[in-house]
Amino acid sequence: MARKRYNIGQKLKLLDEFETLRQQGYSRRKAAASLGVQPIQIRKWTHNRPVMQQCPRKKKSICKGRLSALKHLEQPLIGWCLDQRAEGIPVTYALLQIRAGQLDEEFRQRPEKSQYHMIRALCRANEIVLRCVTHQSQRRPQDVADEALEFLVVERPIVGAPGVNLDVVLNMDQTPVFLSMQPKRTLNLRGETTVNGRKTSNSTNRVTASLAVSASGLKLKPMLIFKGTPNGHIARRELPALPQRNELVMVCQEAAWQDDNNMAKWIDLCLVPYLQEYGQGAAAILYLDAFTAHFSASTKAKLETQGVQLRAIPPGCTGLVQPIDVGVGKPFKDRVRQKWIEWMMRQDAEAPVMTNASRADCAAWVAESWRNLPQSILKNSWRKSGFSWFPADVVDSEDADAEIADVDFADAEDAEVADVPDVAVADAAE
After folding, report:
1. Burial profile 348-379: b = 16 or more Cβ within 10 angstroms, e = fewer
2. Is 295:310 a contact under the CB 8 Å cutoff?
3. Which positions of the chain have pLDDT values less than 70?
4. What are the tens digits of pLDDT across the range 14-58?
5. Are residue 386 and residue 291 in the same domain, yes or no?
6. Strand (E) positions, 248-358?
7. Do both 373 and 236 map to the same domain?
8. DSSP string covering 61-109
9. Is 424 helix (H, G, I), strand (E, B) or coil?
10. What is the pLDDT of residue 186?
11. How far is it, in rounded angstroms, from Cα 37 to Cα 4?
12. Which of 300, 391, 399, 426 has the fewest Cβ atoms within 10 Å of its own Cβ atom?
């Protein structure tokens, strides 16, 4: 039997499968053989199971290894790091090195490379790793979370009020789509001091995509805003000739950005046709972030004419309670990036200068990615952003507040949506 080393998660899974086989009448030896392990391994893992359940699943051993040389600084260093992160302040290995040097003269005298490896080992032993920032705000995370929860206290009863048609509870936001998406990391031989990478001639060119979804999981027609004169050659001749003209609304703006004129076009060409098809006379609710063009006088007037109730998402809270940001943007961009990778595979690697994709390519990527985005992702984006509604038999607003407070914004991807009581819209306004 080939030798293989399992991590703790795999060992626990094998133990569960072993117990299932034993319940089916397998002997210990036969059950172990069918799983490809030795009976002595099963006995050892069973004995260590309580300890393994307390360990990270990716570790391969329950042994903690040798004691850290910074054991005497573990509590103040890790405590300081967690306090800084609680305030939203970024912390790096270099900052921890400086902090450790302030606390210990002996550590400060060590070589810099030795300091780095000691700090890194200490962090890994305490399950602290480098992560990409997924939500940025100028304010403290707890302040933003508190404001997001206050927003949900008001909005969740409105969304869940009797007679509300979830097909017309909408959220719209803009996201950039770049015509060149070269990765910042690449495979390369170990030890080389310089890692070269080619980029396209106009690697910063981008298109703005205005995406909108409903609380029931329906998608509105996307709008793509290309860089160009609003009434120029691109807008009048090139874009109307693209094959995706029926799936997308395509316009131009000097900076490829959303402005008042493009908001009016989005309302006329994306929102109004959608409401005519799915509105059925129900009052629509549109959630937008605090971007200037979203709440301009012309936008408000146009939405009011269509009978759309405009609701504002608090500044700094979009990464927590805006469905497009929480659950739609990343899977959409992942699909667009995959299309770009497939396009790159077809390009000539011998070309002296790499060029960007065309507007036709970008329109095709966006149309296909949006078309293939599953409805389950759209529904989950509303759940993960905290929108839900209350059971009709609970009317106590204090209970509603308590249930909403259970929503955890520490990690938006893992946030669970609590069931919260049904409160009348009038009560919510009070």
Report:
1. eeeeeebebbebeebbbbbbebbeebeeeebb
2. yes
3. 1-2, 64-67, 201-204, 352-353, 388-430
4. 999 999 999 999 999 999 999 999 999 999 999 999 999 988 888
5. yes
6. 249-253, 284-288, 308-312
7. yes
8. -S---SPPTTGGGHHHHHHHHHHHHHTT----HHHHHHHHHHH-HHHHT
9. coil
10. 82
11. 9
12. 426
Give me the amino acid identity at 430.
E
- Evaluate whether residue 66 is within a structural domain: no
Q: What pLDDT, on the 0 to 100 scale, is given for residue 400?
A: 41
Cβ burial, residue 343 (10 Å; 0-12/13-18/19+): middle
- Same-domain status, 236 and 340: yes
Contact 133, 90 (CB under 8 A): yes
Q: Which amino acid, 342?
A: E
Structural tokens at position 197: 């990478």
For position 210, what pLDDT does the model report? 96
Question: What is residue 100's predicted lDDT score, i.e. its pLDDT?
Answer: 93
Query: SS3 for 141?
Result: helix
Domain coverage including residue 121:
71-125
Proportion of the chain in helix, strand, coil states, percent, rounded to 5: 50, 10, 40
Instruction: With residue 159 as reference, give the H or E element that holds it.
Output: helix 141-159
- Angle (deg, nearest 10), helices 74-86 and 93-103: 130
For 325, counting Cβ atoms within 10 Å of its Cβ (0-12 exposed, 13-18 middle, 19+ buried), the class is buried
| CA distance linking residue 72 with residue 299, whole number of Å | 60
118 and 237 inside one domain: no
CATH of residue 165's domain is 3.30.420.10
Q: Provide the token pair at 370.
A: 């949006």
Query: H/E element holding 212?
Result: strand 206-214
Amino acid at 225: I
**Strands, E, within 53-108: which ranges?**
none
Instruction: Kindly state the helix (H) or strand (E) to which residue 175 belongs, with its residue range.
Output: strand 169-178
Q: 257: phi > 0 → left, psi -120 to 50 → alpha, else beta; which?
A: beta
User: Torsion over CA of 416, 320, 421 and 215, rounded to 10 degrees?
Assistant: -90
Residues 93 and 12 in one domain: no
